[in-house]
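Blinded run. Sample ID left blank on purpose so nobody reads anything into the name before looking at the predicted structure. Input follows.
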Amino acid sequence: MDGVAPLARRLVFAVPVLSMTAAAVTFMYQVLRPMGMTPAEWAMLVLFSLSFVWIAIWFWNSMLGFIIQAFSRNPGEASSPILAKLNRSAPVRARTAIVMPIYNEEPARTCRRLQATFRSIEQTGYLDRFEFYLLSDTTDLSIADEERLCHAHLSELLATGKIHYRRREKNTGRKAGNIAEFGRRWGKDFDFMVVLDADSVMSGDLIADLVRMMEENPDAGIIQTVARPILSETLFGRLQQFGGRATAEIVNTGVGFWQMGDGNYYGHNAIIRTAPFFEHCDLPVLNGKGPLSGEIMSHDFVEAAYIRRAGYKVWNVPVGEGSYEEIPPTLLDYVKRDRRWCQGNLQHSRVLIEKGLSPLSRFHMASGIMSYVASPLWFLFLAASVVNLLDQSNPGLSYHGPGSGSFTLVPGDWNVMAITLFCTIMAMLILPKFLGTFLLALNARERARFGGAAGLFASGLAETAMSVIMAPVMMVFQTGFVVSILLGVSVKWDGQARNGHNIAMGEALRRHATNLVFGGGLLALVLTLAPQSLLWFLPLIVGPLLSPLITTVTSSRRLGNAFARFGLLMTPEETAPSMEIAPLRKPDPAWASLIGGGGTAPISSGAVGTPAT
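Blinded prediction complete.
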């Protein structure tokens, strides 16, 4: 029976995804076929088919999550059986390492987050079962000096020798290599390790529960939580933060329901069984030259696939309470990170064909690839649509059926079908956002923590509108990413921006040049050839043309905080912060000298803490 439940759950997911895709493709064919299928229309149909299935997957993940959260007494347990078996009264016996790989990060900021996690674990009474490791790959020597000072200061504040610091001279293998070296040195000393990013915070109660789940399920290799976004003050960050809280959690509930023990790993805020991980998850160096070769940048999907191949399960548990991370503060910072992720995900095309991987592991890597390839597919679909538009503008073709304009995208009465299809796709993209907000509004406690019903729905509308406007902007960016990678242009892995900063219009104009060319060119083409079709193309034109202004405005911390004063784009991590988050929302006098002085203030020579050398 253990093997029947996953199959049944996957059919519950796959059947509607494939049925809806088949229906949409058939409908699209009916839209295109009235005057005979041209080469451009055949291209549109193929590209539409490949792209629509991606939308259907997103939609049904969301719908399953919504149904579970709306109608289950315990949505987490209904989604992920591993939670149903959890015994919270069981003692924590296993030895667990809390590891935080860092790379050219702001040391004081990083240490404050580790401090919050330490204090929270201390509250559980199981601190003796944990050790903490700051694993530095920092290449900037001045930052490395600050790291040492901050490590000593942190150890002194906590009066502990449990915080260990190690810095590698060469960051071979990037983050995966950093973790691998930890495994070679100390992995055998621990049953499990909890991996954090430099911007991660986790509660002691959640970490204790993760350890219990690993102890109760010896076939579990990785258990991944849902990291809730926190501490954003820019308008862009607040929009992303609200969207992540209102929508991402129903998606993750749906994902957990059908993936079961074939889930995925996202690189942080997860617990890992150390012995099989370090035995089976060494990453290959991809042969050849160019961006798709060398060290694998997006290590997490591959590590999940390898530990699954070794016979261990990977669980995605829809638990967000107690698992937190920060997000890029501006659109340009988000795009910079997205470019790295794109190259890393495309590298998976060379891994997913390896022998012995499970079908779901291959699906995860293919989905990661598709998350970026979908943009050039839609771009090509748009190009085929323009070619089709050129065909229809040919005065020799009688494409003017009843009720049609002179240069409509599709002929005659089939405009109704095309509009229906367009509205269906938009509904599939927007409905999950509405349903996530609706669920929050039904719960009086959550409604209050999100700023009240009016603020909650206004925030939902604002975030949805922004996501619609920004979708074509990201399509242009991601299409450029894929093309540049295929042309052999690699990317440098820099430290992640954490602090908000205003972006000047000049920089925004320069960085959005491709979007401006795309939006302006498409507008000119449509107005010249088929002005009656402008309404069809307007959603693709507005965002790119306004993208520099949007980037500049949403980078503002002052505007973001103004929204918050009116009760908009609020989240519980701001209105009712947990004991882990509350200290991070305000300056800490214990760190004031380090932060204010750039980390160079003198520290007492009586600091304790063992450097892991």
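Unblinding after everyone has recorded impressions. Confidence is low (pLDDT under 50) at residues 395-413, 596-613.
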